[in-house]
């Protein structure tokens, strides 16, 4: 029996020629290439968007917290230029107790100027060379009125037992005449002690002013009479750039706490900080070196942060980098 020619022709048409196969493969590869390009482009865009979002969030956090400290700097519930009696033992040996006038409540450090008590370094939490830093003091937001003050018993009586003050806190008592910085030697309800001794402790139980160079033992008692005297916690912070535990630069804060000083990472990816200052009766912002000894006249700070992304999401396959600026005024020194 002879095969049907039509059937043989039909079966031959079911196959592909080599040329057809090659064309199909080329078309398939082209489709895969286009799809791959779109995929990687979308991935790059996603990474860039994620990095920008993270950088903006870090910048928002950094500026919000730093600006709050700058705005409050040199502030106390009484008179901002009142003389200060600092009775903390060896106050000048620690940055967080070294405040002898509210004019010193803001102090900037140039990018090549190390802290007096700590040099530059590359370890975790050590300030990086080439980055500016800022040191600030103020009175805390919680204010208690002094109802009575016994200089002989070295203790205050406050108008509330819920002030939140505790033994060991660094506190500021003030009125229209002066302010005194001391450590609470005891705290029980509304009663706050300021006896001599402790750690770091008070060099004297007397809270009066002394002349520059005089011994602490020469202080005289000063009574903070009711109802025009108040008490707050001392708020002290430092802001600087340091490497975190992963070896990446971040914005750090050192902050006075009831148990000493706590240093913590605030915002990751902050690789540099530059700060300029506006001095009263001037029109241009100056570097910390240019301010010189005029810190008592600084009324605003211009903070410039450089942020670096985590991934190589830039168009040049490098980490994204953005520089953002914010200005904060010292509201206690502005009309």
Written account of the structure:
By secondary structure, the protein is of the alpha+beta class. The chain has one domain. Helix content is 20%, strand content 31%. It contains three helices and 15 strands. The chain has helices spanning 5-13, 18-72, 288-291; strands at residues 84-86, 106-109, 133-139, 144-150, 155-158, 170-174, 179-183, 186-188, 191-193, 230-243, 249-257, 260-268, 270-279, 298-308, 321-329. Strands 1, 2, 3, 4, 5, 6, 7, 8, 9, 10, 11 and 12 form a twelve-stranded mixed beta sheet that branches. Strand 6 (170-174) and strand 7 form a beta hairpin. The longest helix is centred in the N-terminal third of the chain and has 55 residues, at 18-72. The protein starts with a helix and ends in a 6-residue tail after the last strand.
Number of strands: 15
| Residues in β-strands, percent | 25-35%
**CA-atom Rg in angstroms:** 32 Å
Mean pLDDT: 88
Please trace the helix and strand order, writing H or E for each element.
Answer: HHEEEEEEEEEEEEEHEE
